[in-house]
Structure formats: C-alpha cells, structure tokens
Amino acid sequence: MEQFLLKVEGMSCGHCKAAVESALKEIGVETATVNLEAGTVDVAFDPQRLSIGQVKEAIEEAGYDVA
Amino acid sequence: MEQFLLKVEGMSCGHCKAAVESALKEIGVETATVNLEAGTVDVAFDPQRLSIGQVKEAIEEAGYDVA
C-alpha cells in the first residue's frame, strides 16, 4: 500500500469532500480522507492497481485542482 | 406569485447551489436561483401554495442558514 497526502484546491464544503472521496473510491483506492480545513486529501492505494497519476486525474475530473 | 431575495449563509460551491435550488423545487417553488458570490437565493412561489416560512425551512433543512 502506498500513501500520499495531496494538496487540493477548491474543496469548500461537505459536498466537495463527499465528491472527492467518492471519485477516489470509484477508481479503487483503499482509503481517501478529505480534510477541508487543510485542503488536503489523504489517500492510500495499492501501487500494483493504481498510479498516483490516476489518483490525481480522478480528483481533477471531479472538478478540483491538485497542487 | 411572490418573489423574495433571501440572504443565505454557507453556500460555498456549485454543489451547494444545486442542493438549495433542488430543495426549493421539491417543495414546489416556481423558480429558485442561487447567487454564490452574493450569498443570496432569489425565489418565486405561489403564496396560495407556500409560505415564506416553508421556503426558509427548506433551505435550513438543506443545511444552510437564512439570515
């Protein structure tokens, strides 16, 4: 399992938190936790199934910018 | 038809806009338009079907504070 703490811009409310966490779970991450105050996403995934590029892409497709 | 411009706190993004407009349409308002920058909801409804109290209640139930 690999774990990353990503800085993500534009997440402003509980809907945004749910949208990002749900987008990440859909692509098969193990865990995804948004911290709205910090503007971060803590994500863990199996590197044999996903790449960090795919994780970032899923966040961006949900409408947010990965810093 | 009656029209009100309500000041609403806590609407921060497109999801919030959609949540408030959808909650108001569910209770039967004629039109509901959120302006995120201004923090307002412009709402029109038939006073024989709804009261302003019901409109405010729907917004609060969606999770936002009517000022």
- Distance from first to last alpha carbon of chain A: 22 Å
- Give the second-level CATH assignment, the architecture of chain A: 2-Layer Sandwich
Based on CA atoms alone, the radius of gyration of chain A comes out at 11 Å
Count of folded domains of chain A: 1
**What's the tally of helices of chain A?**
2
Oligomeric form: homodimer
Number of strands of chain A: 4
User: What's the overall geometry of chain A?
Assistant: globular
Average pLDDT number of chain A: 97
Most extensive contact: A-B, 8 and 8 residues
- The strand line-up of the biggest sheet of chain A is 2-3-1-4
- Sheet-strand content of chain A, in percent, reads 25-35%
Q: Share of helix among residues of chain A?
A: 25-40%
Q: Quickly give the structural class of chain A.
A: alpha+beta
What is the element layout, followed by pairings?
The structure is a homodimer of 67-residue chains.
Chain A: E1 2-9, H1 14-26, E2 31-35, E3 40-45, H2 52-61, E4 65-66
Antiparallel strand pairs in A: 1-3, 1-4, 2-3
Give a description of the structure.
The structure is a homodimer of 67-residue chains. Chain A is α+β, with helices and mostly antiparallel strands and 67 residues long. Chain A has a single domain (2-66), classed as 2-Layer Sandwich (Alpha-Beta Plaits). Chain A has two helices and four strands, in the order E-H-E-E-H-E. Chain A has helices at 14-26, 52-61; strands at 2-9, 31-35, 40-45, 65-66. Chain A has a four-stranded antiparallel β-sheet, covered by helices on one side. At the A-B interface, helix 1 of A face helix 1 of B. Chains A, B: GO terms for molecular function: copper ion binding. Chains A, B: InterPro entries: Heavy-metal-associated_CS, HMA_Cu_ion-bd, HMA_dom, HMA_dom_sf.
